[in-house]
Amino acid sequence: MAYVSLSCLDQFGLTWAVVNTIPSITYEAPVVWWFRERRQLFPAKGAVNMAAFVSCALTIAAIATIETILQLQLTPLPPGYIIHYSQVIARLMLGNFMGVLTVAPFALVLHQGFAEAQRAGGHWLHDTLDTPLFLESMFVVLPILCFLGWIGHSDHHARGAAQIAMFLPVVILALRHGWRGAATAGTMASIGIVLLMPATNDHATLQAETLVALAISTMLLVGARLTHLNHCAQQERWDSHMAMALAQRNIAMGEAQLRETAQSLDQLRDSINGVFNLMLRRLRHLQPVANDDGYRRQAQKAQEQFYLLADSLSPSMLCDRGLPDALVQGAVPRALVSAGMKYWCDIRGPVCLVPQPMAMAVYRVVCEAVAEACLTREPSDVLVKIRCGISHRAWLVVMVETRRDPIRSLHVAWDLLLQQLQSSTTGLGRKAIEDRAATFGGKVRERPIHDGRRVIVSFQGENHPNA
Question: Is the dihedral of CA 296, 300, 305, 310 positive or negative?
């Protein structure tokens, strides 16, 4: 600027030359500082107060326009030269505002991308080239702008329409990527409009610049709101994921504690059995002719109670042999069959790949559903179907279907069955089923059928590492 002032000193005078050497940032920097410090232009890392940014851009454009107009007052003009200030001010304001919207938002995108890459310990250029925003800008927006530029260059009648249509990519990227998309597409659209400008004061170009300036500023505001909503949605999903993971870890710890308690009960049962056998041997030594069958039956019954209690706390067959054997030959299936009910279990899919906490939850849900249905003393047939698979994550669907046969249901030993089922369930029924399903991102549906009911429970596991 000093070089320009020296070159034009003889033409415009010393006063103009001195004023011209003062850079515009001298007047604009305090305004930007005020917006940054007092209006929270950057409220947090990676965040931009876009309303404050657009207001700051308008203020800077106005300051630059006023500076130019005041400098014109100090400029010696040729005799008879008339300045139409209304037109000049409008063009200067539009040009300065377009200049800010062309450079500053895209510079913020690059700066924030570089800062995020440094915080994440990544390589900025590699991370930028691998983003959907860059790929869509290069392979979607740029071809569209080139096509519109080719139309406007080949047909001057369509030049104005082509320039106006260049605001469409701004809307597209803003809706997809928020304010960063609007900033990137806005810079490209502004450059495309200027490249199609046939003259310095082309009326059609000024109209297109006005429309694009409005589109960029509006899409920056809308994109900022979309970015905020997207961030809130991601944070909500993350919080939900963390809460679900915490609940699953708590269930796993609870099951581990129950397993330790069951092992302690097994050890206690063995100890009691040893003590009882020792007492019987001493009793036989004191009274050789005494009949100890009654004592043995009582001891066997006590041992069975210990076994059922330990198995209800932690199903031994599920821990040792897996979910299929537990649902086919476990304590609950044996109790149903011994009570006089018909029981089927159909399992299809890679159940062995289902995580242990989910398999335990499935077993608990089946027990709760069967126990809840048996409380009515109506079912005579129980069918359990399980379908599972691994895609991006483990998924599993359980169907517990109970049917009633009026004749067979009368011959079911309900008292003994309900007593055995009570030790294997929580007694909460449907609420326990819903809570266990929700812990693994599933849902519960119940459908009545003509002779019973059908409960369908879905489960979802964590993302599979090989997916």
Answer: positive
Q: How far apart are CA 338 and CA 334, in angstroms?
A: 6
Cα–Cα distance, 420 to 340 (Å, whole number): 14
Look up the domain containing 370 and give its range. 321-463
Q: Which two tokens stand for residue 206?
A: 């000024």
d(CA 220, CA 92): 22
What are the Cα distances from residue 386, in Å, to 274, 353, 389, 399, 446?
A: 41, 14, 10, 6, 16
Contact indicator for 29, 63 with CB cutoff of 8 Å: no
Q: What is the dihedral of CA 169, 173, 175, 181, to 10 degrees?
A: -130
- 362: CB partners within 8 A, 6+ apart: 323, 354, 386, 396, 398, 459
CATH code (residue 340)? 3.30.565.10
Residue 305 — very low, low, confident or very high, per pLDDT cuts 50/70/90?
Answer: low
Residue 64's alpha-carbon distances to 29, 49, 213, 401, in angstroms, are 12, 22, 17, 77
334-383 pLDDT tens trace: 888 888 889 888 988 888 877 788 888 888 888 888 888 888 888 889 89
Q: Angle at which helices 142-154 and 168-195 pack, to 10 degrees?
A: 50
Residue 280 lies in a domain: no
